[in-house]
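Researcher: For the record, we're logging two predictions in this thread. I'll number them. Prediction 1 follows.
Model: Prediction 1, sequence and structure:
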Amino acid sequence: MKNPYRTQNIAFFFLFLATLLIVVPVGLIIVIIIQKGLPAINWQFLSDIPRQGMRAGGIFPAIVGTVYLVTGAIILALPIGLLAAIYLSEYSKDNLLNRLIKLAIVNLAGVPSVVYGLFGLALFVVFFKFGASILSGSLTLGIMILPVIITTSREALESVPQSFREVSLSLGASKWQTIRHIVLPNAIPGILTGTILGLGRAAGETAPILFTVAAFYLPRLPNSIFDQAMALPYHLYVISTQVPNVAEKIRYGTAFVLLALVLIMNLVAIIIRYKFRKRKKW
């Protein structure tokens, strides 16, 4: 007779081992970045422009450019993604066409970022003549994270119990009133999870901004959405591969700032999600 506790302990061991295989390498990367990048962090590094061929000075234009691009991408992707998710989960019929659309959206989430970069170059930079600009970069990043937001938002909406909708409709509320006042408030934590995932991907991608917005070096901040901008991912790539004799602490310091920026953005979204999650009644 098999011992169920032995089987359970073996399963727990392999699950724990799999967790370690994921957590330990990521933890080591973070520790190395902090250890080698922290000495470079000071007020001048965070607030000054690059100097001496980007071998000295700061990374302030790259920080500002990254914030502009991520903000623009979320402003575009979140409303469109949420509306698409509402339609797919609440209004569309369960037929072959809609199943194909849902499958296509899931597949688009796995498309390499360089493909989105080429798409943004062809559509926004060349066809619409926006040029290499913050607008082109934000639109490209927004389209790139759109499948993630649609998928997670749809799953969050579908996780709301059907009984909530039935009670609302039985009390005389319309379909939209039910979605607006019952379904959406209960789905916000899941929607914000998708937003967090989108934030992380938009802030860390290099290929899309390489084709659509990123400048090798700019001594000033952008004045409009039609200007080019520096961005932390591309700046990190440049000082690591294109500019010789850059101090190691500057490279790791840039990586540390990018990591911290993504963490801060995610933390704000997580706090908002937590506040909405506390209001849930189920």
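Researcher: Logged. Prediction 2.
Model: Prediction 2, sequence and structure:
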Amino acid sequence: MGEWHAEVLAGLAGLAGLYLWAARAQGRRLAPGRLLALAGALIVLAGALNGPLHDLSDRALLSAHMVQHLLLTLAAPPLLLAAIPPGLLSPLLPRLGLLPLLRRLTGLPVAFGLYNGALVVWHLPALYNAALEHHALHVVEHLTLIATAVLAWWPILSPDPVLPRPAYGTQLLYLFLMSVPMTVVAAFVTLAPAPLYPFYAAAPRVFQLSPLEDQRLGGVIMWVPAAMAPLAAFTGVFFRWAAAEPDE
């Protein structure tokens, strides 16, 4: 069953409680689809940060770690944003004084730069290896990836008019560019002629994978979804744009 971490479960319970409190404070009745998206996000985060996948990521397989990172950046953040009802944040952000900061952080250049910068920096061999050897740094890594991924997906899935989505054409260009840095990192990992991460080179062998085979598998796992997730979003935005165009 793998190890389950009480602090992760407590954090997810707190996130769910905050969401429900904000909705009830405004007297909102949450649609089943929103609740399903929230449940999906919490399940993805719980499964990525606990249990067998987490254990394999922390102790043995780079490929499992890549799956974990994809869940944290390409699955959970879109679900979290899809769970937020339109207008839920409008009365909260100005009251908390967060609106100017979030407007800046969710702007296209800043959101793109923060997310892809975090992605590249955390996959540099020295920092990646250090995160595996120091639990506190590993926690910071995961929180950074989740937070910057939420910012990166915000321009496409913004649930609130106070932080609006850009024009459809701009969204399409943004999604086209969004996958490029992750694809470059994935290619670097996949095509490296030798193991890049000493921690995994010295880890116990699982599923009879050599360190280089595990690394190449991890690179491919990262490479394909890095292209497919933005492509799926690109398709959705394109059809929304087509549906919004007035009939001649």
